[in-house]
Amino acid sequence: MAASFPISFAEEALPPTLTPASEQPPLHDGTTRLYMSYTCPYAQRAWIARNCKGLQGKIVLVPIDMADRPEWYKTVNPKNQVPCLEHNNKVIGESLDLIKYMDSNFEGPKLFPDDSEKQRLAEELLAYSDTFNQAMLASLTSKGGVTDEAVAAVDKIEDFLSKFDDGPFFLGQFSLVDIAYAPFVDGFQVFFAGIQNYDTTAGRPNIQRFIEEMDSIAAYSKTKQDPQELLALTRNKLGI
Q: Diameter of the chain by CA atoms?
């Protein structure tokens, strides 16, 4: 899919977040449910993939209050984490595994490339995503300002985004890789500006364009929350 590919998006009324006072949805009753949080970037990956595949009518959102989780949620996912997908009498967790599962097991636009070179880079990028996130989070809690490791990590993303000239995304064309990175590349831009007065996009035109192009995709932009609210939540979570 090119940047201009019209990924269809059906508007939907988002369900309320479930708390300990909320009743547990029936488990394994034939309904496919995505347990998630509106403010968790890992869960956002799965939410975006659902939207991009056009599965709003087939995968029900079940938002969980991760600051005050219902006790019953452990019966759904013993790890007590989001996201997880209830499908065909099983539960799939871990966001990267989950978005691959959605692409392979549900109808809708194919989000993984056919080209062998792009497949190889896709796997490399997905494997690197945790390293990127860890470097960035470590910098946010650093007393000495932005770390060299964080600068190098952002520079690496800028370089990755220059590999193909057939579009503004990691593989040129839109793919699962963009879904995996967008919540973090976008979020870290807000967090570094607000916490360390550092612009992660300055001098990095590929990242700037990537964020702009992602924002133009409704299946992604409709999953975004208020940046200042996310900044406040991040400050609280990191104790800064």
A: 52
DSSP lists the bridge partners of residue 18 as 64
The b-or-e profile of 65-77 (16+ CB within 10 A means b, else e) is bbeebbeebeebb
pLDDT at 11: 82
Residue 37 tokens read as: 């949080």
The answer on pLDDT for 3 being more than 60 is no
| Cα 205 to Cα 211: distance, rounded to the nearest angstrom | 10
Is the dihedral angle over the CA atoms 173, 156, 46, 228 positive or is it negative? negative
For residue 7, pLDDT over 80 is answered with no
221: enclosing H helix or E strand:
helix 218-221
Distance CA 80, CA 70 (A): 10
Question: Is the Cβ–Cβ distance between 169 and 141 less than 8 Å?
Answer: no
Rounded to an integer, what distance in angstroms lies between the CA atom of residue 118 and that of residue 101?
19
Q: Is the pLDDT of residue 1 over 50?
A: no
Q: Rounded to an integer, what distance in angstroms lies between the CA atom of residue 46 and that of residue 4? A: 22
- Amino acid identity of 240? I
Q: Indicate the DSSP class of residue 63.
A: E
What letter does residue 112 receive in the DSSP assignment?
Answer: S
151 touches 192 (CB < 8 A): no
